[in-house]
């Protein structure tokens, strides 16, 4: 399993079945969010987008986040997981960067009431802290084990 799998943490296997679906839903949501912005807000004007980006860094961060989600969505199948092997795991670690940049995008986007972005930031912080804690705990445990024992 991964660094700190939900199966081990919660002593339940059902959360693992929803990871891919949640990730693909996030990609679908981001796609709809970008589509609505381009179609409704910009009226399909690429010139308006190019004009808007320097004035609004949150748009650039949103595009960056979306670009991170594209390879994650397209490599989310079991076949791609098998094809990429360990590289799949390395690639899908981009989800951590995507989570953080999405929350920052939301924080920068909101002008007045930042309670929702802060709620999402808190959830991401708690989940990522649990991952980091578990990783450090495993790393510490593995460094205490003797590695080169020669049996005689």
List keywords for this structure.
mainly alpha
Structure report:
- The chain is built from eight helices and no strands.
- It has helices spanning 6-10, 14-41, 46-55, 57-74, 78-84, 86-92, 94-109, 115-144.
- Helix 4 (57-74) runs antiparallel to helix 7 and helix 7 runs antiparallel to helix 8.
- The mean pLDDT is 88.
Compact overview of the structure:
This protein is mostly helical and 152 residues long. 80% of the residues lie in helices and 0% in strands.
- How would you describe the shape? globular
Estimate what percentage of residues fall within beta strands: under 5%
Output the radius of gyration. Answer: 20 Å
Instruction: Output the number of helix runs.
Output: 8
- Poorly predicted runs are none
- What is the arithmetic mean of pLDDT? 88
Q: What is the CA-CA span between the terminal residues?
A: 34 Å
Largest sheet: none
């Amino acid at each position: 399993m991964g660094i700190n799998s939900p199966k081990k943490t919660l002593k339940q296997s059902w959360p693992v079945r929803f990871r891919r679906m949640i990730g693909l839903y996030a990609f679908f949501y981001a796609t709809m969010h970008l589509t609505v912005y381009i179609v409704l807000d910009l009226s399909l004007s690429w010139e308006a987008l190019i004009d808007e980006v320097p004035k609004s860094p949150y748009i650039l961060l949103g595009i960056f986040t979306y670009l991170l989600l594209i390879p994650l969505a397209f490599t989310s199948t079991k076949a791609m997981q098998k094809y990429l092997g360990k590289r799949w795991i390395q690639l899908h670690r981009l989800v951590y960067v995507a989570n953080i940049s999405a929350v920052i995008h939301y924080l920068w986007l909101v002008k007045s009431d930042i309670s929702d972005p802060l709620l999402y930031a808190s959830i991401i912080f708690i989940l990522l802290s649990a991952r980091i804690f578990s990783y450090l705990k495993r790393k510490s445990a593995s460094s205490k084990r003797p590695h080169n024992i020669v049996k005689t």
